[in-house]
Amino acid sequence: MGRHPGALPIILRLANLALLVLFPVAWFAPLMRAALLPIFGMNEISVITGLQSLWASDVGLALVVTLFAIFAPLAKTIGLALLHFGLMSPRTLPALHVLGKLAMADVFLVALYIVIVKGVGLATVEVAWGLYLFTGCILASLVISLLTEPDAHRP
Predict the structure, then answer these.
(1) What is the pTM assigned to this prediction?
(2) Beta-bridge mates of residue 125
(3) What is the fold, at CATH topology level, of the domain defined by 5-153?
(4) Contact at 8 Å (CB) between 141 and 77?
(5) Angle 110-23-54 from CA coordinates, rounded to 5°
(6) Burial class, 108, CB count within 10 angstroms (exposed 0-12 / middle 13-18 / buried 19+)
(7) Is the pLDDT of residue 114 over 50?
(8) Which is nearest to 71 in space by CA: 99, 96, 104?
(9) Coil, strand, or helix at residue 127?
(10) Where in the chain are the domains?
(11) Which member of 27, 97, 102, 139 has the greatest number of CB atoms within 10 A?
């Protein structure tokens, strides 16, 4: 049997609703600054500017990254909000967990790109505050999802 909507702590509901505001901020926030040579200045790269570049050069990869970076976290957050307020069945929670795993994949990809670029030594890359915000949003969504578990673990 699932939880009654009133059984969830209000802080959990508010934290999830805050993600509906924080995710779009994180999409436009600078994830990193990059330059071929630091004397020429550094360009800020965000999820949105990265997606714009991808759509111009590789539509297939752009679709995958758009799914992972935009739609998966947003769909999961909206789904959890509907679940928290009793507007969606607790049976959908496994699907929301899958969305959460997809959303985590893009943070891994960004970290991998930074390591590769720094390892090759062709560019100077600095991590910016948006990467921490974006990662924090994904991790907060994961924690909220875990705390939303139905009473399935109880005997």
Answers:
(1) 0.77
(2) 34
(3) Butyryl-CoA Dehydrogenase, subunit A; domain 3 (1.20.140)
(4) yes
(5) 45
(6) exposed
(7) yes
(8) 99
(9) strand
(10) 5-153
(11) 27
